[in-house]
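hiii, so i know i said id send this last week but things got crazy w the move. better late than never?? heres the sequnce for the chain we talked about at the cafe, plus the structure i predicted for it. fair warning i was half asleep when i ran it
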Amino acid sequence: MTATALKPLADIRAQVTPEEWQVRTDLAAAYRLVAHYGWDDLIFTHISARVPGPDEHFLINPYGWMFHEITASSLVKVDLDGNIVSPTDHIINPAGFTIHSAVHAARHDVGCVLHLHTSDGIAVSAMADGLLPLSQTAMVALSTLSYHEFEGIALNLDERERLVADLGSNNLMILRNHGTLACGKTVAQAFLNIHMLERACQAQVRTLAGGAKLHPARPGVQELVKQQVRGMKIDVSGLAWGGLLRMLDAKDASYKS
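okay and structure toks below
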């Protein structure tokens, strides 16, 4: 069987507001960055971003596109009922809609939701004690971490109520026996949050593989890190995001099309 080429898409920049185009560009960049770091799972995970404005729409990937192929124009706009509201020949992942619509409907402070199936994230999701305070990165993640029990492939819309109840006001979640999830006010914040969680999971898996006796941080230090994170005045996600975009632009700036 020969490979099927992607159908070329027109640049839709002139058809959307400048605010939506900026979100589209940032979201496409997040897809490319997930691919760059090797966090993608063929076509089977998803990142979404809220469209600015009163319509309660969000953007998500066209089902069937690899993450390194995503562009600003290819993203599909949907409403909270799952209706596609932008002209497209593509469909969206039903499980992706379940997870992302749940968060966007319940958390209006969230502009971006990012869900992954990395090997390290899945490994930690299957550990009875979950994420352990073994590293600074883990303690940063633990300051805003929730857990949600596995209920099967996320095709049951009734699960949305339980998912958002478990998430609460936190911005990170470990989906048991499944993977990881991060939220943020912006795409930049969501990406930095998932980066922290994934690095923490990777460090934990490597530490446990070493077989040495563990040395978790003291409870008082864990609480101190939580307060330090919550009291931070600088938006470090913006600083990191600028560097990430410069890296992407040098590598392949086609995500902006």
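btw The first helix runs from residue 18 to 36. thought thatd interest u
miss u guys!!
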